[in-house]
Design brief:
By secondary structure, this protein is of the alpha+beta class. Helices cover 16% and strands 52% of the residues. It has four helices and 14 strands. Strands 1-2-3-4-10-11-14 form a seven-stranded mixed barrel. A four-stranded antiparallel β-sheet has the order 6-7-8-13, covered by helices on one side. The protein starts with a strand and ends with a strand.
């Protein structure tokens, strides 16, 4: 430790979701959905291609929710939630995490408690319009396509996020450091298709598919994962 990811590519779409059904999905973790406005939270769908890292090459699909830091649960103010978002005090709960590598699945579950499951991927991270799909046992979970965005100034700056996970009845938090380069973003720009897999049904319960708030692509992403600690 820490585990180093020396090169990865990623693209993602952020969605506004109703707080109540989102909270119902994560109640078992003891964490609370962060509200960016009354009754609404944030859900991020992300595809990552890990090219060079300590866990080897693999593909990944994440369903993530922005949550309050576990040290600040019980606060109900949208203002305080927005302040946490602006200052980097919010956390990201990694709710679902299909991958296509057995080693990274075992390592992710054993080291950090990430809810990794084996799945099949068809991904294109190289074209201007990014596209990927993820399926398990022949059932489509999701297919996401995003349009090209515009260059984001200062996208080479590093950032740290408190990453949360829950597995086998235990909620953990991990320091997750990211250093992205070449980020391109835009308002909207996502085409999301959901299949017949139970994870797709979860996303439908949040009102998806719908128009994305923001989409982003990252052609060069470096990451560091620290030790996991129990909440």
């Amino acid at each position: 430790m820490p585990v180093q990811i020396r090169h990865a590519t990623a693209f993602m779409a952020m969605y506004s979701v109703p707080t109540a059904p989102a909270q119902a999905l994560i109640d078992h973790t003891g964490l609370e959905i962060l509200r960016y406005r009354p009754g609404r939270g944030l859900c991020v769908l992300v595809f990552v291609d890990y090219v060079d890292g300590d866990l080897g090459p693999y593909n990944e699909f994440g369903v993530c929710f922005m949550v309050r830091n576990h040290r600040e649960t019980g606060r109900t103010s949208v203002v305080s939630d927005l302040r946490s978002l602006a200052t980097g005090g919010a956390g990201a709960l990694i709710h679902r995490l299909p991958v296509d590598g057995e080693f990274t699945m075992a390592a992710g579950r054993g080291i950090w408690g990430f809810p990794k499951i084996l799945a099949d991927f068809d991904a294109d991270h190289a074209s201007p319009a990014k596209r990927a799909s993820v399926s398990q046992d022949g059932k489509l979970i999701a297919e996401l396509r995003i349009e090209p965005g515009i260059a984001v100034p200062g996208s080479g700056a590093g950032a740290a996020v408190e990453a949360y996970s829950h597995l086998d009845g235990v909620t953990r938090h991990t320091q997750w450091e990211m250093n992205p380069s070449g980020v391109r973003s835009r308002l909207g720009g996502a085409d999301l298709t959901l299949g017949t897999h139970p994870i797709a049904d979860e996303l439908r319960s949040l009102g998806l598919p719908r128009r994305a708030m923001i989409t982003s692509s990252i052609p060069d992403l470096r990451m560091t994962f620290g030790d996991a600690r129990m909440v």
